[in-house]
Specification:
Blueprint lengths: L5 H13 L9 H7 L4 H7 L3 H17 L9 H14 L1 H9 L4 H24 L6 H22 L7 H10 L3 H4 L8
Amino acid sequence: MKRKKAKEILAESFREIADKKPVDKITITDITDNCDYSPSTFYRQFKDKYDLIAWDYMYRTEEMLSKVGVDGYSWKDVLLDGAKYYQKDKEYLGNLLKHTSGLESFEKYMADFNYRHFREYIIKAMGVQNVDRICDQAIRVWCLGTVRLNCEWILGQLDVNAEEMADIYRESLPSVIKEYTLIKME
């Protein structure tokens, strides 16, 4: 049986509270009281609640990305699972986008995180040490665009389901990198 780490418990506590309360109104004491931890335990794990938000997004995303190449799990599966995650957690993510230090800060964090990980994936798929400038910028543009589109979807400005969103992700991949998302990673 896998025991949850303090970070996971604190993130779950935060998400539970965020179901009922705007993120900017949640205090560290709210989070720690909800899971019977002390504020000092919180601060051993995170700098502040925004650090917790970033860690939670990273943790959930890395969980999906770590499956690529395992038991036939493909990049297409990652895109669908990502879309399902956004769809399932629309209210929570909408709360983050509407009630943090601005839509741009969380959106920028998501784009930067996605860019770093997708770039690593493409480098591995290409079997190279680095990508050229055109490929690098194609990855950046795709990550920025899909994150912006995700935010619009989360905020109810785009009416599609998770499967349709995954298709949009896949079909919008720039041609310079598209072929590398079809490679079965080992």
